[in-house]
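Good morning,

Both structures are done.
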Amino acid sequence: MGSIVEPRSHNDYTIGWVCALPKEQAAAVAMLDKEHDDVRKPPGDPNSYTLGSVGKHNIVIACLPKGQPGTNPAATVATWMASTFPRIKFGLMVGIGGGVSRKVRLSDVVVSTSVIQWDMGKAKEGGSFERTGALNNPPTALLTALSKLESKHRRFGSKITKYLAAMGEKCPEMVREYLRSDSLEDVLFKASYAHVKASVADDDEEEDEEEEESCRRCDKTMAVERKLRDSPNPRVHYGLVASGNQVIKDGVFREKLKKDLGGHVLCVEMEAAGLMNNFPCVVIRGICDYADSHKNDAWQEHAAATAAAVAKELLQQVSADDVEREPAVKDLMNQDAPTRVTGLHLAAYFGVDRAVPDLLYRYGRDPEDSHGRTPLSWAAENGHEAVVRRLLHLDADRQREDDAGLTPLDWAKKGDHQAVMKLLVSEDTGSLPPSVDDEKALPVAPDPSQASTGETTVRLLIDKDVGTNLVDSEGQTALVQQAPRGSDAAVRLLLHCQGANRTPRQTPLLWAAAEGHLTVVRQLLETGAEVGLTDDRGRTLLSLAAGNGHGEIAKLLLEQGAQAESADDQGRTPLSWAAANGYEAVVRMLLDKGAKADSVDEEGWTPLLRAAASKHDATVQLLIAGGANPDLARLMLPTLQVLEAERRPQPQTAEDESTLQSEAAEDESTPQSQTAEDESTLQLWAAENGYEAALKSLLDIRGSIDSTDEKVGAMLACAIEKGNIDAVRILLDKGASTNLVLTEGSPPPPPAAVNGPTHPPGAY
């Protein structure tokens, strides 16, 4: 491994290196000239970084969360990287991929000159599919370096074998897996020939996993005959990379994709599309399979090593001065966010053509956002043919240039939206639905039956050019309003817009977690929201989700690093909230993640007592199986029953009963969370009313008590006042001080100390 050097600051690092798999990260770190000490991470950053240098460049290496390949996790990693290291100028996405072109062989390396997202697009008439995911090109500094590198490769060949040999000397443990061995076979089967799996009889044979994954049962006569190369050394190819969120393991589909993309695509992979629109980078892929059913893991480590070697070669061609001149990724992410977005812009963005006449009458034909872009420009970029046709029919300006000098046609070309491009160059916009007034766009009443998320958003978010960062009378921004509604598309746009209340408290995330909107929670987390966020009562996202029974959100939060034992201001854990409401699946999940079944909150309640008080018997049994004290429920059950009876007033008349039912219904629908000052503790009630066995059990669970705690003094005072000598003895034995007993003239205990502790409230 490279030598460890003195620590540096976050601002010293200018190039990011992103890997999808630990095996790719290992190869990346092995290619560093020097490895640096870690620097402090800001709270909430989930990434794990390795720092080092190649030549004159300081590098940040990050790996996607284990088991989460794909474009979205890659975007999350890159976003956090750019935030933590604010001078990152561009990135390298380095790892393994599947070969598509016939000229590409296993262990060869493909370097992207452009990337397309193959699984993004829209269905068209006749069953065809228009791909709309053409992504930004790499930055100038990288393109210049790529030209130099390709020229050197043509003249002298690559340095892959040299760097692999050096890696083997530095890291002998990597030799067996990462350097090529004679046991690796490079066989390309015909696209239509499927892999032959083990038969039932073969299942009884003892063989290791690698042997099981091999193609030893496949018919080698079905292999494609290819010309032998002059050298066994890997080659480097430059061209188109196709990225998507799905693994391709189908030779027929691979060939169709290649044909659909004009025969130019060299390889497929799963992460780059998540980076390239906002995180300028080059994709470097070592070929480990042919994206067919015969793919296995045998070549992965070696392919990861060859890709890392080419990445090192490329970095040595990048000028430090060129890097310095590039804008920081963090600035690029911010500068694209538009402001002055009107309702007509939103209708164009979402493709809501029915809303256009009304909104056009309100805002005019060509309102401009802060970048000088019109709704026609937005619709053209996103390929919304119906909106473009309607805007053109109503005389929107098709020649209007934005601040970057781009027309709507230019934006349509960027997304390769052929149908929209034809509309923009044609004088005939075609016929429109009969609901449109050809003479004048008059306001039309919205049709609730046709309202989509986009149309609702258009109606609710922005009126009279109100920005997304402004607040309503309750202090809520548009993002806060849309998150609890689960308006996924609206949230996505608002996160893109500047000033959408992305504050450290991330109130939208709290509401989305509590209301159960999984997609919104995922979107907000992927844009950098903190998984450890708390509300003004200290309740975590996990407590909010658990207390409302949102198991999928709780699972996501735990996967993102949420702490199962996080306690709020009352000392209540997510398990306490879930148990109080009888959400068995969430309780089981939290126990499996190590949540303590006997944790005690500030009021003296355990999850078991919360569940028992609410008569959730199945949850009680789950908690006992998870380690809760089974005697506690038995001892406390009479106490809890008395508490329940005393808490609920008894109706005297039919009118009283109706009123109480209404109040109960309101209680169940309203979030409740009394503070410690508003409630007495369970121990206090037990001490006052002579439930000595229950008091002792509760204090045993609590452990040592603070002799100066006024609550402990209140327990002792109540026990003395009521003449409960056994309770007094228990408290003194536990360390309560008589100095805290209320004396004559002291203020009386709060009403809660007399009325008994509050029944565990429902979470929300």
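Second structure follows.
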Amino acid sequence: MSDLFKIRAAAKARSRERDEERLRRGEVTPSQLQQENLVFRGFRKGEIGLPAKYMKKIKKRSEDKDET
């Protein structure tokens, strides 16, 4: 199992190196690179997250903390 983690870590390191090189050469801007590396593509902001009933609970907890 640890071999899988090592392989994944090596792949991510290679990907980061490629990204850094592309930035240095000016092939992409930081914002373009960020868009390319997004995990969730094609979703509007706010569509990904917890169901509404959980969001209400989280919001209430946050408000309760602010009051104290």
